[in-house]
Specification:
It comes from Devosia elaeis. By secondary structure, this protein is an alpha+beta fold. The chain contains six helices and nine strands. The protein has one domain: 3-Layer(aba) Sandwich (Aminopeptidase). The structure holds coenzyme A.
């Protein structure tokens, strides 16, 4: 009985604190609106968007952050490979402006990466983002020019998370199918 109560308490979201859950088709309109707010019309020209045009996202790795039952953030994952090594491209990651600086963004990035890597099929999580935001979460700077995207990217923003700490420097190749 005590164990059951403890387990329920552990899974109950704390008031005012972000928590994550899998996205469902009912979240589609929220996610579309959120991405428009966060990235604007220029989002369709982004190189990461071009990757997602070529290779489908994995809907089972789409997560929603909520605060007190209100959706406030979203993240997607695209299974990819680089140099025949399987992994994932994280993004877009966005939090609604009214809910920023509560930890939802970092929670989404951490949680979706843990869930993806725990499957044991892919060994890295790649993204294009700010070092100051992602490096404290475990992402490392890649070797500039090693990873070829289907469009221009700022090489200092190409970051990689892996249990294999040498992979960020050594991974090399064009982004291809998983
Ligand atoms: C970036 C974003 C997802 C952060 O969401 P969030 O829910 O506010 O993130 P968290 O609450 O987990 O973290 C907030 C902290 O990160 C900092 N931070 C936010 N964006 C940052 C950035 N680009 N670079 C460095 N630090 C950043 C905040 O200043 C804040 O710092 P503090 O904790 O010292 O106050 C959100 O601002 C967003 O949706 N931005 C627009 C879209 C975008 O840029 N997405 C990322 C693309 S890679």
């Amino acid at each position: 009985m005590t164990t059951l109560v403890a387990a329920e308490a552990a899974s109950t979201p704390l008031a005012g604190q972000p928590y994550v859950r899998p996205a469902t088709p009912a979240d589609d309109a929220f996610v579309e609106e959120l991405q428009a707010i966060a990235f604007g019309p220029g989002r369709f020209a982004r190189t990461a968007f071009r990757v997602r045009e070529r290779f489908p996202i994995d809907p089972s790795l789409s997560l929603i952050a909520e605060v007190d039952g209100t959706p406030c953030g979203s993240v997607w994952m695209t299974p990819i490979s680089v140099g025949r090594r399987k992994g994932y491209l994280l993004g877009p990651l966005a939090t609604h402006p009214n809910f920023r600086k509560r930890g939802a963004g970092k929670l989404l990035a951490r949680e979706v990466s843990q869930r993806a890597l725990a499957r044991g099929e892919g060994s890295f999580v790649l993204l294009v983002g700010d070092q100051d935001y992602y490096c404290p979460l475990g992402w490392d700077i890649t070797t500039p020019g090693n990873i070829q995207f289907p469009g221009p990217v700022d090489p200092t923003r190409v970051l990689l998370l892996s249990e294999d700490k040498s992979l960020a420097k050594s991974l090399k190749g064009t982004i291809a199918a998983f």
